[in-house]
Amino acid sequence: MKQIIIIFSIFLLLGCKPEEDKSVSQEKLDLYFDKGADVNLSNIERLSFVDSAAVFIENIYGNDSLKTDNYFKIANRYFSLLEYEKYKTITDKVLKFTQSNRDSLNIAKAEYYLGDYYFSLSKQDSAYYYYVTSGKKYRNLNDRHNLASTILHKAYILHYEKDFVGSESETVKALNLAIELKDDYLIYECYTHLGSSLSGLGDYEKALEYHQKSLLQIKKLENENYKPILQAQTLNNIGFVYQSINKHEEATQIFIEGLKIKNLESIQPILYASLLDNYSFSRFKINPKEGLEDFKKALKVNEKIDHAYGKVNSRLHLTEYYLAQKDTLLAIENNKEAYNLAKESKYNKELLSTLEFFTKLIPNEGLSYAQEYIKLNDELQKQERATRNKLARIEFETDEIISEKEKISGQQKVILSTSLLVFCFGLLFYIILYQRGKHKGLAFKQRQQESNEEIYRLMLSNQDDINEVRNKVKRNISLDLHDNILNRLASTRLNLFAISRKQDEETIKTAIQHIDAIRVIEQEIRAFSHELYNDSTMNKSNFKNIIEELLKSQSDTYDPVCRFSVNFSDAINNMSPEIKMNVYRIIQEAFNNINKYANATKIDLKLDADSEGVLHLDIYDNGVGFNVKKIREGIGLKNMKSRAETIKGELIVESEKSKGTRINLKVKLN
Question: How open is the CA angle 532-536-540, to the nearest 5 degrees?
Answer without folding.
Answer: 175
